[in-house]
């Protein structure tokens, strides 16, 4: 849903369960709610932009001026909407986020089990779970879904719907991939709608759709600390290595059109770098937490 419409519906108190989760996933939802909560004590028509800017600097590493410009119109909108009664029970919204190099296991109210990969976020509304099994994912996660009503995983790239099954969803920037391990999975994307069976996968990157079959296994290898790639953009492989090891990688080689097939483990940085550079005849240099990828 359009961001502006989502915020407008939040102000009006007309968000449904799925839209509430989408609102929580907005990067500045906490800031918008903070502004709204402060409005009863608001004594002057002038917005304290310095304080707002300081708070934004603490909560994001993005350009604060851009963030401030994006927030100010909505702060004004909240002031106008002070007379509107709305209902949003943030206490029932559960947000689980992993750090760099970290994995986490999440048990949902229906005993569905989720394994979150590094630098990923999972959001769901516990209060409405019995009526709507809806989650919002940013990053990568493996789902083992308990049988029951429709279960939905929303991402910024596409939507995955199942009844009871096991599947993996990865959404990183422009890269979107779904792999079915058990049961069947319906995938909806602006470019493609498909039902996957066990062993089947679909990946979409920069409007290019790839699908196929893989040997049927119980779970993705990353849950055991091994990252496997098949025809994945090289920059995405480096991004994943960066997420797992907490290093900053500078790629001095044009890799915009390179695809990588291979794997690396999460227990040895040197070996991981060799695994992703040697097949492409590249080299690397490590300086503290910084890595440079270069030609040999």
From TrEMBL:
Residues 228-293 form the Protein FecR C-terminal domain. Keywords: Membrane, Transmembrane, Transmembrane helix. Pfam families: FecR, FecR_C. It comes from the Bacteria. One of its GO terms (molecular function) is sigma factor antagonist activity. The chain crosses the membrane at residues 71-88. InterPro entries: FecR, FecR_C, Ferrdict_sens_TM. Residues 97-186 form the FecR protein domain. The keyword Cell cycle does not apply. The keyword Zinc does not apply. PANTHER family: PERIPLASMIC SIGNAL SENSOR AND SIGMA FACTOR ACTIVATOR FECR-RELATED, PROTEIN FECR. This is Anti-sigma factor. It comes from Patiriisocius marinus. The lineage of its organism: Bacteria, Pseudomonadati, Bacteroidota, Flavobacteriia, Flavobacteriales.
